[in-house]
Design a protein that fits this description.
The protein has 509 residues and is mainly alpha-helical. The chain has 2 domains: 213 residues, Son of sevenless (SoS) protein, Chain S, domain 1; 228 residues, Son of Sevenless (SoS) protein, Chain S, domain 2. 59% of the residues lie in helices and 4% in strands. Strands 1-2-3-5 form a 4-stranded mixed sheet. Strands 4-6 form a two-stranded parallel ribbon. A hairpin with a 2-residue loop joins strand 2 and strand 3. The chain starts with a helix and ends with a helix.
Length: 509
């Protein structure tokens, strides 16, 4: 809550916020020349760096960083930044930080800004990076004549940072720098310029506070529905069943998609890098800060919960094999409907649930199911074989068809565990420096490209109507623990093998 207190205090100190005034486009390009910061090396070669692109108001565009023309700020005989065909491919960390620093007539390229803010946290903490940028700008302000200060561009940098990576500003150390920046920038301006900076800073804080307040409310909601959601007592289960509540598999798939997109929308792009940093054995423990968000874990918890819900829904039908068959078929139809709308995460969770021992061992139930072949096709699409090659082909096809303006093509929800693993692998590559000590910025571009694609998908408004009753049920109704599910399964169909009999005996002990 300290962040909110200081944000409100700073907003008041910067005079009344002009909240009706439109915010400057966070990543609108600058026509002013690039800042000369370092010695530049140009390498010939056919390779090109993939550009970072996105839809939406808060990301970067597909502009490459341009070569700089002379030297400034990096005292080294080595070449500090390296370009190939106009694309930044590597650089010393201190030169890359210098490249971030705005002046009165220079503002960093938007694609570079996003890639570096995203990935630099593998090497430098966000509050330290902002502190270095602020210190250099303060030096420029002291050495500049009135009218030539970088204050407006520095405020713009804070605006774009807070728009794209707002959760960084939950850190009081970051907010401390923001307060200092606001004070310095207002002091550096005169007359109408000072008032304009006050209004810009107030608007930044107003928007930031709204985002962080929404996150806090969302976290409180999740906390309220987690209580007693997993039970070992079948009598604690709701009398209402999923099929009875939803009616059709298509409706259930649509409500699952609503939940998926809502939970995705709260994941900050930086959370993948911070989670990697927190868990990586290759990063010194003294560099690791406590996590200030848990949206990745929350999303994975939801995936695991959906898997448990599928299992619970099947094994609770202890005495009625026909009803168990109907429940199995309903979930297979739901999985197919998720496949059709592009909701691959729910699809994977359902297939995983149906593959759990407590369900897959019910041989007599599966034998009666008429949709077994359809299930096997879906199972194959989500198979681990060849590093999920079938799923990856499906995802590429869905991504190629993606159209946010077409309800039938606007949903692409990747399998979250696979996405996270892929991004963590890219973080591994980003950590590896070149033999000359340079950071390999080509790897930064690749990570930024993948994360930007994810952001584009998560910003989509769900095209399906929302049922609050169904969504609440799916997220809050009690589900059986793994042991309780196995015991219920043995009541559905008695154990046959010695292994199953031993397992049942152990669970009952």
């Amino acid at each position: 809550m300290a962040m909110y207190y200081y944000a409100c205090r700073l907003s008041a100190a910067c005079s009344a916020a002009s909240t009706s005034r439109s915010s400057p486009p966070p990543f609108q390009g600058s026509s002013r020349p690039h800042r000369p910061v370092a010695t530049i090396s140009h390498q010939p070669g056919p390779s090109r760096v993939d550009k970072v692109t996105t839809e939406g108001p808060s990301l970067c565009v597909n502009k490459p960083c341009k070569p700089l023309s002379d030297t400034r700020g990096v005292s080294s005989s080595d070449e500090a930044l390296t370009y190939r065909e106009g694309n930044l491919v590597s650089g010393k960390l201190e030169a890359l930080v210098e490249h971030m620093v705005p002046t009165a007539d220079y503002y960093p390229d938007r694609a570079f800004l996003f890639a570096f803010l995203l990935t630099s946290r593998l090497f430098v903490k966000p509050h330290e990076l902002l502190g270095q940028i602020a210190a250099r700008c303060q030096e420029d302000m002291l050495n500049s004549s009135k009218g030539d200060e970088p204050s407006s561009h520095l405020v713009r940098l804070v605006a774009e940072w807070s728009e794209t990576f707002p959760y960084d500003f939950r850190d009081e150390r970051v907010m401390s720098h923001v307060r200092q920046i606001a004070h310095r920038c207002v002091s550096a301006e005169e007359g109408a310029g000072a008032q304009e900076v006050r209004e810009e800073v107030s608007l930044i804080l107003h928007n930031l506070l709204n985002k962080l307040t929404r996150l806090e409310q969302y976290e409180a909601f999740l906390h309220s529905i987690r209580k007693d959601s997993i039970t070992s007592n079948p009598e604690m289960l709701s009398q209402m069943e999923v099929q009875e509540l939803c009616g059709t598999a298509s409706n259930l798939a649509q409500q699952l998609t609503n939940i998926e997109l809502e939970r995705l929308s709260y994941i900050g792009p930086e959370e993948f890098v911070l989670a990697y940093t927190h868990n990586s054995l290759g990063i010194d423990s003294t560099f690791k800060d406590p996590r200030i968000t848990s949206n990745l874990e929350v999303y994975q918890d939801w995936t695991n919960r959906l898997c448990r819900l599928v299992v619970t829904d099947v094994v609770r039908q202890k005495k009625n094999k026909k009803q168990r068959v109907r429940v199995l078929e309903f979930w297979v139809e739901t999985a197919k409907a998720c496949f059709n709308v592009g909701n691959f995460n729910s699809l994977m969770a359902i297939i995983t649930g149906l593959s759990k021992l407590s369900v897959c061992r019910l041989k007599r139930t599966w034998e009666k199911m008429e949709l077994f072949e359809k299930y096997k096709v879906l199972e194959k699409q989500m198979s681990k074989e060849d590093d999920y090659s079938s799923y990856r082909s499906l995802l590429r096809a869905a991504s190629a068809r993606f159209n946010k303006d077409d309800p039938k093509l606007s949903v692409v929800i990747p399998v979250f565990a696979i996405l996270a693993a892929d991004l963590y692998a890219l973080c591994d590559h980003c950590l590896i420096k070149l033999s000359n000590g340079h950071v390999n910025f080509e790897n930064f571009w690749q990570l930024a490209k993948r994360v930007t694609e994810f952001i584009t998908w998560k910003q989509v408004h769900c095209p399906f109507p929302k049922s609050a009753k169904i969504i609440t049920y799916l997220q809050a109704t009690p589900v059986l623990s793994e042991d309780a599910s196995l015991l219920a399964s043995f009541e559905c169909e008695q154990p046959e093998t010695s292994e199953e009999k031993e397992l049942q005996k152990r669970l009952l002990a």
